[in-house]
């Protein structure tokens, strides 16, 4: 049986999730914030992956289109958009492998990587 809800994005900060939630709901797409109350427990939020914005599975495609139109893409250390070396798109987001317990608990220690949302290539920061 297909799950009723699908996660379309995860956020480090509740306010960021609530902005996208409000936009989706203004477009008629019901949403649910999973793990929103756990963010008050400090480093635990990094271990569980932040607050998850979920929509009904039947609304997933429409929600992703709306979210892609307003989402912030990754910026490098100079504040410029991260450009994918493969497809040259400026549609990348921070990528965390969370390989092993150490990086799961302390993801800020992991080397900066970016995932292109266009071609899905994963690159390291230059």
Summarize the structure.
With 126 residues, this protein is α+β, with helices and mostly antiparallel strands. The chain has helices at residues 14-26, 44-48, 60-70, 100-105, and strands at 5-11, 31-34, 51-56, 92-95, 113-116, 122-124. Helix content is 28%, strand content 22%.
Note down, in words, how this protein is organized.
The protein has about 130 residues and is α+β, with helices and mostly antiparallel strands. The chain has two domains: about 5-70; about 75-125, no CATH class. Helices cover about 30% and strands about 20% of the residues. The strands form two sheets. It has a three-stranded antiparallel beta sheet with strand order 1-3-2, covered by helices on one side. The longest helix is centred in the N-terminal third of the chain and has 13 residues, at about 15-25.
Main traits of this protein?
126 residues, alpha+beta, 2 domains, 3-stranded antiparallel β-sheet, 6 strands, globular
């Amino acid at each position: 049986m297909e799950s009723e809800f699908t996660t379309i994005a995860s956020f480090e900060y509740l306010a960021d999730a609530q902005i996208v939630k409000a936009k989706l709901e203004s477009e008629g797409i019901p949403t649910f914030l999973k793990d929103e109350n756990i963010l008050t427990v400090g480093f635990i939020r990094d271990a569980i992956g932040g607050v998850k914005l979920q929509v009904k599975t039947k609304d997933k495609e429409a929600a992703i289109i709306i979210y892609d139109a307003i989402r912030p893409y990754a910026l490098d250390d100079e504040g410029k958009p991260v450009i994918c070396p493969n497809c040259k798109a400026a549609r990348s987001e921070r990528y965390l492998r969370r390989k092993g317990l150490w990086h799961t608990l302390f993801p800020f220690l992991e080397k900066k990587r970016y995932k292109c949302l266009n071609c899905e290539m994963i690159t390291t920061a230059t």
